[in-house]
Specification:
This protein is mainly β. The chain contains eleven helices and 50 strands. The chain has five domains: 150 residues, Sandwich (Jelly Rolls); 103 residues, Immunoglobulins (Immunoglobulin-like); 256 residues, Glycosidases (TIM Barrel); 89 residues, Sandwich (Immunoglobulin-like), CATH 2.60.40; 104 residues, Immunoglobulins (Immunoglobulin-like, Sandwich). The radius of gyration is 27 Å and the shape is globular. The two termini are 25 Å apart. GO terms for molecular function: hydrolase activity.
Length: 803
């Protein structure tokens, strides 16, 4: 079998009907996959999708590519493996329909054999569409990888290898391998399957073989139980990975197919007394909800971008991710396996009751079994995956019929994979909207409703009405996920003593309360904040407004145009850690030093409006274009009794921690350039310190994160306005022009600024708080040079080498 990336040679354009005339600017244009057809479309205040998509329009799109089909393929079977096409994808070969996949997040296979014209150039087209079908920015088109697979008629189909570890102790582990062998030929075939288990150090530690006879047009499953001595177990702190190498040969010993499957050896347990345990060791979930987009790349899913997100999120203190609200990409699952990040993978945002006009509910009742199969087949070999979530804030969940759907979906997941836990992101208020008609009529969407309810939401989520309505749907779960319902945690331990809970979605600023509950209550196994990484769409949901701004109007959670980003991540879309990330790290107990967060001096004293998903408008810098003596508010995050603030060695006084908010000491002082030091103390003893220094003369700088990048991969280049010590300035932002030369192209350019009309596809973009990210696709071997220039600054360059 050959499995090769199928990313070059494509064109993409708006899909026009047979009676429409071609329109200027609608393509087709050459593209390289993965590709987001929406990212570079013009945004508008009048866009009907509005805040949901970040004011980005939808559309229907067509991708096309020529495929040379040699005569030798007559003796092969040929398929395309799509990791995801958003959405309602239809694949054609030579004008004939090959397959249709409605789910924009499900991987699927297009079997090309019946439609191939051998010895000719064949034409492949893929149609996709996106319009008012999502509550967030979905992207559109072939946004995840595609592979061309050419195999013998006797072969291993997609996801045909399943590895489990049912029996593990310190001395040995039993590895069960089940391999599906498919015979697409006209005659019975006698084959032999061989297995090798390869340890993390590359040594073969177990092997086995079995003859397998496969009738024509059928599948046969070959199984083996192999024993590995002294197994190196997979755990978030040491993610050891093994590989199961499977080879299928014919009766004469000739190789027909082969596959290497990565897996981990670990055990998984959960109960309300000891919580979650991996390999018998307790683990609490420091979780982040994440959407699927990759910031400046739009929805395009690149292996390097997914790996970078996982790595940076773990470095920021998270050990678990919830894929909200759709199945996680294969690339991100692979990254979670490598980096030791646990996964709650989610099936869908809606079942049978729609949240937006054309969402997945149109097809879900007929295709739910296929959707579950796609999710589980993709996930079941990944040790990082510990839970499947069957939904998010499902509207019908609190009804008797909704409960039958809950049970149906949960049992289907267990039938496909009994080794992991089933959960659901339950919001009791959303599940009871029909009983809240008056409240529902007063708001445009659920986010605004929850924001307006304030403390009432906690009381309602813990009410007897909600408890009774969700009881059956909760009972079908192994772990009950609660969205914004921490008010239930203590009482549920009394009312439902066998119930295990996870905070599947919580407000970011309440992490001090949330984590206190996780530490206190053994039946609460973790917390997933909204969100770990900022995202496109649900624009402005976490913004801070200054209400004395001319023209200000209260728009609820909907950020007015030109808001594009949610502005609700611990990390912004470039991967830069916002101040809340360090607050969370201190709450988790992972950081002993305090952390200084400065409110922008230019806004001092102005009235603000926030949402439940907001944090403060703060930056960790003492480099401001402010007059000496200008008033400024300084927050210091610390796990301490008190914090002393010093400027150039002179004490500005001490403040208690927790007076304004847990883990926060607040100071009102005056700005003066120099060295600002925060010293944290507990019981009079210094526990840590944090230092900020005013930047000297800033210059434009560019730094590539890696010196070498594999051909086809991505280089991430940080561009900053900083002095020679790397101290960035926060309020002197300028547009930066970026040019790429050599075997590479600029794939995306942008900053963490949530409100902007700039395009990620342009060659110029303004810095935000002195920072900008350029993403470069490396198309060939050799040096790729990135030049950055801005008015008033010397041009700067950096480079990476394609290998």
């Amino acid at each position: 079998m050959t499995r090769t990336p199928f990313h070059d040679g494509w064109t993409a354009g708006f899909k026009l009907g047979p009676f429409e005339s071609p329109a200027e600017g609608r393509g087709p244009v050459p593209v390289v996959l993965p590709h987001d057809a929406l990212r570079d479309l013009p945004r508008s205040v009048d866009e009907v999708q509005g805040v949901h998509s970040g004011y980005t329009p939808g559309g229907a799109f067509e991708y096309a590519r020529e495929l040379d089909v040699p005569e030798s393929w007559r003796e092969k079977t040929v398929r395309l493996e799509f990791d995801g096409v958003y959405r309602d994808a239809v694949v054609f070969l030579n004008g004939e329909v090959v397959t249709h996949e409605a789910n924009g997040y499900a991987g699927f296979t297009a079997e090309l054999d019946p439609y191939l014209r051998f010895g000719e150039t064949n034409r492949l087209t893929v149609e996709a569409r996106a319009h008012r079908d999502s509550r967030w920015y979905s992207g559109a088109g072939i946004y995840r990888p595609v592979h061309l697979v050419v195999a013998d008629p006797v072969h291993i189909p997609t996801y045909g290898v399943v590895v489990t570890t049912p029996d593990v102790d310190d001395e040995r582990a039993v590895i069960e391998v089940a391999v599906t062998v498919r015979n697409a030929a006209r005659h019975t075939r006698e084959t032999r399957v061989r297995w090798e288990i390869v340890a993390p150090d590359g040594e073969t530690v177990a092997s086995g073989t079995s003859p397998v006879t496969v009738l024509p047009g059928t599948d046969a499953v070959a199984r083996a139980r192999l024993t590995v001595a002294a197994p190196a177990r997979w755990h978030p702190d040491h993610p050891h990975l093994y590989a199961a190498r499977t080879t299928v040969t014919d009766a004469a010993g000739a190789v027909l197919d082969g596959e290497s499957t990565t897996f981990g050896i670990r055990t998984l347990q959960v109960d309300p007394v000891r919580g979650l345990r991996i390999n018998g060791l307790p683990v609490t979930l420091r979780g982040a909800c994440v959407h699927h987009d990759n910031g400046v790349l739009g929805a395009a899913t690149h292996d390097d971008a997914e790996d970078r997100r996982v790595r940076l999120l773990k470095e920021a203190g998270f050990n678990a991710l919830r894929s909200a609200h759709n199945p996680m990409s294969r690339a991100m699952l692979d990254a979670c396996d490598r980096h030791g990040v646990l996964v709650m993978d989610e099936l869908a945002d809606a079942w049978t009751r729609a949240k937006v006009p054309f969402d997945a509910t149109i097809t879900f009742p007929e295709r739910w079994e296929r959707d579950i199969r796609s999710l589980v087949e993709k996930d079941r070999n990944h040790p990082s995956v510990i839970m499947y979530s069957i939904g998010n804030e499902i509207l019908e969940l609190g009804t008797p019929i909704g409960s039958t759907w809950s049970r149906r979906l949960a049992e289907a997941v267990r039938a496909a994979d009994p080794t992991r836990f089933v959960t659901n992101g339950i919001n009791g208020i959303i599940a009871n909207l029909p009983r809240m008609a008056e409240a529902r009529e007063q708001v445009e969407d659920a986010n605004t409703m929850m924001a307006n309810m304030g403390d009432q939401m906690g009381l309602m989520n813990a009410s007897p009405l909600v408890s009774a309505s969700i009881e059956e749907s909760a009972a079908v779960l192994d772990v009950v996920g609660f969205n914004y319902a921490d008010s239930r945690y203590r009482q549920d331990a009394v009312d439902h003593p066998n119930r295990v809970i996870v905070g599947s979605e919580t407000f970011p600023a309440r992490i001090d309360v949330m984590w206190g509950l996780v530490e206190e209550l053994p039946h609460v196994i973790g917390d997933f904040t909204w969100t770990g990484w900022d995202y496109l769409g649900e624009a402005g949901i976490g913004r801070v407004d200054y209400t004395d701004e001319p023209g200000y109007a209260d728009t609820g959670t909907a950020g007015p145009f030109p808001y594009r980003l949610a502005e609700s991540g611990d990390l912004d879309i470039t991967g830069y850690r916002r101040t809340i990330s360090y607050y969370r790290e201190i709450v988790y107990g992972l950081r002993t030093d305090p952390y200084i967060a400065v409110h922008r001096p230019q806004h001092h004293g102005r009235p603000t409006a926030t949402t439940p998903w907001s944090w403060t408008d703060t930056v960790s810098t003492w480099s401001w274009d402010a007059a000496p003596g200008a008033p400024v508010t300084v927050d210091v995050y610390a796990d301490a009794d008190e914090v002393e603030l010093l400027l150039d060695g002179e004490s500005l006084g001490s403040a208690p921690v927790g007076a304004e908010k847990a883990f926060v000491a607040r100071f009102e002082t005056a700005f003066r350039p120099g060295e600002l030091v925060a010293v944290a103390r507990r019981d009079g003893r210094v526990t840590g310190r944090h230092v900020l220094r005013t930047a000297g003369t800033p210059r434009l700088q560019a730094h590539a994160e890696r010196a070498e990048v594999a051909v086809g991969g991505l280089a991430f280049v940080t561009i900053i306005l900083a002095d020679d010590d790397g101290i960035a300035v926060a309020d002197r932002d300028v547009p930066v022009e970026v040019a790429v030369s050599g075997p590479g192209v600029l794939a995306g350019l942008g900053s963490g600024r949530a409100r902007t009309e700039e395009s990620f596809g342009a060659s110029a973009y303004a810095t935000y708080d002195g920072r900008l990210l350029a993403v470069v696709r490396v198309d060939g071997p050799g040096e790729v040079v990135v030049n950055a220039s801005a008015e008033g600054y010397d041009e700067v360059r950096t480079s990476v080498v394609g290998v």
